[in-house]
Amino acid sequence: VEFPLWLTVFTIQRQKSFTLCSLFGLKQNTRHKYKTKGSEATTCSDKFTSVSDSTADIFQSVPGQSCSANHSNRKSVILREGSGKVISINKSRRIKHVDGIKIITGSRDCTTLDLSNLSLNGLSPDIGSLTELVELFLYENKLVSLPSQICKLRKLQKLWLQENCLLSLPVELGLCTKLIHLDLRHNRLEGPLPAAITRLLSLTQLFLTYNKLNDISGIGRLTKLQTLVVKSNNLQGRISDCIGQLTDLKTLDLSKNRLTEIPDEISGCKHLIRFLVDYNHILQIPTSLGELTELQILGIK
User: Fold this and answer.
1) Contact 191, 167 (CB under 8 A)
2) Cα–Cα nearest to 94, from 69, 122, 72
3) Please, which residues bridge with residue 103 across strands?
4) Among residues 80, 71, 57, which one has the least CA distance to residue 24?
5) 68 falls in which pLDDT band (50, 70, 90)?
């Protein structure tokens, strides 16, 4: 039988003891309790829960395990009842690597989850059970895709996915209609703007720097956008006319592409303050730019 890489289930007890039920090499009904001294896994009065690298010592104590030296950097974290409203499991807690995150009943009241910088290769479908999530930090991992169950996060407002290896986005992400902030910088998105993004009609901030997008013509649907950054992609030729539909736009950064022309429709961005198209191949500035009375910064090189 091949077991998943959930090495331990642990909960924090009142007397600073851990209850462990190993899912790797032990029967499910086998339990062991261990006291830990100076444990850095704490539950604070402000409902902030963190898990630190001190859990490495526990792995060495589980009987029947074949623990190699690198197990201190290979952990599985299971969020359990009482985890709190805000959960952070990231580099600030000195965890270098996590093989998996499993979410079970009891942590569903969580509104903020920070799983940044954990070298995660994938995200469990269980993420969909955190229906109260408002903020989700997944940046600086190794994610190639997202589970379709992310669509269940209907209250999600801010999603940080920068510095991963995302090749695409699930269409289901478009059902997170309350999303206002989406950061996808430094990923591997190619081709046209993902369809999921064009359905996020509440977005006010969208960051797509350092991808390989060559078409953002679907962006016109996102009429609430205030910040749009598509720097260092593969955009070519004329900027899409639909850019003029973004009437609330304040910052537009399309620098470091291969654009050649600014459309007259840019005049529709009445509230534009920063417009950056430097390091492109723009040969002519349209007179319609003169209609942008709030424009303060114009970058063209």
Assistant:
1) no
2) 72
3) 79
4) 71
5) very low
Architecture (CATH level 2) of domain 173-301: Alpha-Beta Horseshoe (3.80)
| Mean pLDDT computed over every residue of the chain | 76
Q: Please check the confidence at residue 54 and state whether its pLDDT lies above 80.
A: no
Nearest one of 60, 127, 50, 141 to 99, comparing CA atoms = 141
Helix (H) or strand (E) holding 57: helix 56-59
Decide if pLDDT at 270 tops 50.
yes
The token pair that represents 6 in the structure block: 């959930």
Which residues make Cβ contacts (< 8 Å) with residue 23, sequence separation at least 6?
3, 4, 6, 7, 8, 9
The structure's pTM equals 0.73
* Distance in angstroms (rounded) separating the CA atoms of residues 107 and 87: 9
Other beta carbons less than 10 A from residue 52's beta carbon: 15
| Separation CA 268–CA 147 (nearest Å) | 37
The residue among 60, 87, 63 whose CA lies nearest residue 74 is: 60
Place of tokens 């459309």: 263
- 200 pLDDT band (50/70/90 cuts)? very high
Q: Which is more confidently placed, 95 or 248?
A: 248
